[in-house]
From TrEMBL:
<dbReference type="InterPro" id="IPR027268">
    <property type="entry name" value="Peptidase_M4/M1_CTD_sf"/>
</dbReference>
<keyword id="KW-0479">Metal-binding</keyword>
<dbReference type="InterPro" id="IPR001842">
    <property type="entry name" value="Peptidase_M36"/>
</dbReference>
<keyword id="KW-0378">Hydrolase</keyword>
<keyword id="KW-0862">Zinc</keyword>
<dbReference type="InterPro" id="IPR050371">
    <property type="entry name" value="Fungal_virulence_M36"/>
</dbReference>
<dbReference type="InterPro" id="IPR011096">
    <property type="entry name" value="FTP_domain"/>
</dbReference>
<dbReference type="Pfam" id="PF07504">
    <property type="entry name" value="FTP"/>
</dbReference>
<feature type="domain" description="FTP">
    <location>
        <begin position="88"/>
        <end position="137"/>
    </location>
</feature>
<keyword id="KW-0482">Metalloprotease</keyword>
<keyword id="KW-0865">Zymogen</keyword>
<keyword id="KW-0964">Secreted</keyword>
<keyword id="KW-0732">Signal</keyword>
<keyword id="KW-0645">Protease</keyword>
<comment type="similarity">
    <text>Belongs to the peptidase M36 family.</text>
</comment>
<protein>
    <recommendedName>
        <fullName>Extracellular metalloproteinase</fullName>
        <ecNumber>3.4.24.-</ecNumber>
    </recommendedName>
</protein>
<dbReference type="Pfam" id="PF02128">
    <property type="entry name" value="Peptidase_M36"/>
</dbReference>
Amino acid sequence: MRCLFATSLLVASLAGHVYGHALSDGTVSRRKSLGFGPVHPHEVYKSSPYQIQTNGFLPMGSHVEPFKVARAFLDDLLKDQLSSGNQYRIRKDSYTDKNTGVTHVYVRQVVNGLEVVDGDININIKDGMVLSYGNSFYTGATDIEQVAGPHDRHPHREYCQQLATEFEGRLAQVQQYAGAQMPMGSGQEHLDLVEPLAHIHSSNCLFTELPYEMPIKSQDDLDPRNALLQFMIAATPKSEVAQDILGNYDAHLGKISVSETNHFADPDSHVTFSLDNIPDTVNPVKAHLAHIQVPSKTGDSTELNLIWKFEVEMQDNWYEASVSAAAPHRIVSVVDWASDSPMPVHGQDSAHPLPSPSKLATYNVFGWGINDPSEGKRSIQKENLDSLASPIGWHSLPFVNDPAMQSVRFSKPTEFFRNTTSTWGNNVFAHENWEGQNGWVQNYRPDAGDSKAFDFKYKPKETNRSDALDEAKKYINATVTQLFYTSNMVHDLYYRYGFDEVSGNFQQYNFGRGGKENDAVIANAQDGSGYNNANFMTPPDGQNGRCRMYLWNTANPYRDGDLEAGIVIHELSHGLSTRLTGGPANSGCLGWGESGGMGEGWGDFLATVIRASGNYSDYAMGSWAANREQGIRNFIYSLNDTLNPSTYKTLDKPGYWGVHAIGEVWAEILWVALYELVEKYGWSETLFPPAPSEDGTIPEGDFYRKAEVDAFGKKKPLIPKHGNTLMVQLVFNGMKLQPCRPSFFDARDAIIQADQVLTGGENFCALWKGFAKRGLGPDARVEGRTPWGGGVRTNDYDVPRVCRD
């Protein structure tokens, strides 16, 4: 074990990777990030109504209210489990998708009055029929003596022992592959391949497996401070902070203040505590008692353990962590909400009529579709006034929702909406963050004045290396303008494909259309906390998402990640996939393994589709910023399996441990599936649907098929008529259908079911053909899945029998 730790530290210190933070000497290392959790052998995702009917639950009729259907289905599904100590609650972030008519119901298990944080059921319902569901509810004993006693297992040490064993196996694989052609082609292939796994090992196990136990006064001590300090020793990237906690434990314990947060108007809420004065955090930590499932020693079932669930916001991380309540307070699961990169208003608040922007802004930027400065020149672009997605434009928001107007929150301003002339609006707050700090409201942002003409110079020149940073800062006005423009375009585009208020999008004000508000994207340009990276933090709906973009010191003059649209789109897409998967109030569904990898893959896929055109081309990710033709992934995205040989089984190879490597395989699979639809339906040169008419209807134009009505006279959902627009819609809809913690199989099946809902399944075989081309056919499988994404996979290149003709 000691040898493995030494290897971890050696390999993790290697320089030259283009997706980490810069150190003081200009080299690059990865941001520390914890991410692991239990594997649930019993969880299922049923994506066919026939599977559901086989279990005996029949459709209830289109006249039955969806939540009544959900409760009837739950009572039937759980009839052998429900008891006075084992219940469920339907979460308030459940919603009906107005585009598809599907109601997405999210359910959390409650045992003896405490939630089971990984006990989730998601049910998808339309016209009285349960279309699909995912289920990870705990199925064992629920007697209070059996789930909260001193016998609680602490599987984190077992996770680390398992990871060490797998690390040894991967090292052996690297030796086996030595001398073969490696994907990165760097000349140090074996180091490049083992580095991601070494980083995972050292981040997740190095500090937490030191030979000590915290000085707990009682085995029954449920004080959250002890568990939280144990977590901070593992979470902090600063060894001096960890050692200070160990050396001055009693002093740190005494400084922590604990206050209870009461939910007067929400009797279903758990009792939440706020803990302040925590080392290496930037805001008070939220905590509540809950249960979590841990694997049994045999691995074929789970046991229920009592834990503290924490929300810990740090400078570079925002964690959702489950730590055992009983000493020695081991980490059971942890998700980092920070992910790296590399219309007339229906239902609006009639008390506040929407103003029309007095003057549309203009921006001198690289226009939509130009990925980076190597592809074209800047031009003057107009503010995109989409009456559906941004009905008050990009430079307006209510006074009471404006973080800069705190003084009027409890007064009555003469105007409801505030118009701005800077990069500050209802969807995005964009600014510099040269200091790399947590504060942002007072940071600098360009102000175009009454003209709202954001036209700023951008012409950096080569300088001495010591002056390169100052040279980049000279053009901050152009940089922030570009970040604001791209982020708003992404907001509006994603809105039109269904990422709206009820599904958890990012807006300060939601126009009375549902969902939680006060969560616009905080967008940091030229963030000073690192180089050669980008990341996005996605807390649950109602809390601001945070996008941090960095300079890249890979060329002279420095290259600005804010100017490479693909990187910005990738990061913003983390907010999309996290909020759509498992519901907008659950940000813990894409934390590790295949789920975490797909969180990266959707970002790469959408960024690539957005820049693509009808004239086919292969594409790299991060090529311009990294100053590397191949980009920052192992392979470019290509239909040519010589240029990109990725298949499902590629995940077994050395170098495919990190979520980015897993994600690029998923993105490649989606890229291949996309072109099965493009071959069938052709290509649309714009992904933006037509602007809404004055009466709120959306014209079909050349974008949608002719609208149809069903047998009941109800208008069917609009169906994009081209292959690329249809695939984007199916990907969005699939995210809403899939379960929390999805596998590749779950996400694949959800996309195929999304087509069934939208088109009646007319692309069933085309989609299966695309997935099967990269080994994800119906008989693909994985054995021995681990929390770290390990396992042995088998490809299947065939399609279902019905498609073989």
